[in-house]
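re the bet — no i am not wrong, look at it urself. input seq straight from the record:
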Amino acid sequence: MPMELGLWRVDGEPVRLSPVGVPLEKTLEDLIERDPDILGEPLMIIGRQVPTAHGKILDLLAVDGSGVLHAIELKRDRTPREATAQALDYGSWVRTLTHDDVLDLFALYRPESSFEQAFADRFGVAPPEEINTAHRLTIVASDMDPATERIISYLAGYQVPINVALFRYFRDGERAYLARTWLLPDVEGTDAVTPRRTGVRETWNGQDWYVAFGEESGIRSWADARTYGFVSAGGGEWYSRSLRALPIGGRIFVYIPKSGYVAVGMVAGEAATFDDAVLTVDGAPRKMTELTLKARYRHAAAGPDTDEYIVPVTWIKTVDAAVWEKGLFANQNSACKLRNRFTLETLARRFGLDD
């Protein structure tokens, strides 16, 4: 059973305030939109009065810092059975939303802002690569009845990610207060788990790659890479494996950790160890071991798993001042597919690319 809330004014003799009905349920919807933390955890609203594929209208759609989607529906004047069935119907739709769908819904809701920048402003980090790996359903109600409790508790017992946020509205003269409790305990911070599926990442355009160039004193130098046309990684299988997968003809955007994006170019050859790498310098092939370099591209332990690997690149453009904006994609992989639409659009603009 949800805990019954009591509220007292205690600036003199204790005076208990009696809950009254929220003047309009739209008022409660407005409050949640303005401050979704009312629901007990940091959320970012990504849609209001959202049309579903089934001809229904979802009151609020939100995302949390882990990329979990939250479908929030006010009970209004529906019966417990109707409200619960409606929430489940919304869940069946939310589960189908792809990463791209989420971005499109947010663009309709807040066309003046990118999802990535808004997410970074809200949670202090860039959004995860996978969005909607799980979802949660919240019914917002101002009253509770035994039938609702039985239905929701039964569903939750079978791992259906659903709960009821019960609000009480108090007035004390000119002041108004709102209190909230949950039907089921331990909802805050509990992620709903759903089977892994496709579509939780953004669609890849089949062309663009992200490369992290980790400068390391004496071992790896961006000045060398910029001058002679290459990217590199090594010192362990985890660092070099993804770099060796870069395809010839792929377009790469190079990111220096804690700095930003510094170059865009086309992969011009297959990966090779430093000792075997050959680059084109002034139109002629040159072995890297014969070049004048600022770093040595060798590691303490030698061998196929720890060697530094070199990938030849034809630079399209390099910049002196690294490009960085809040919400741009970055991770610790040496190389991976660059799917993030906001990052690609920003870099295309900042590097002056036609596409």
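see?? The domain at 7-182 is CATH 3.40.1350.10 (Trna Endonuclease; Chain: A, domain 1). told u. also Confidence is low (pLDDT under 50) at residues 187-191. so pay up
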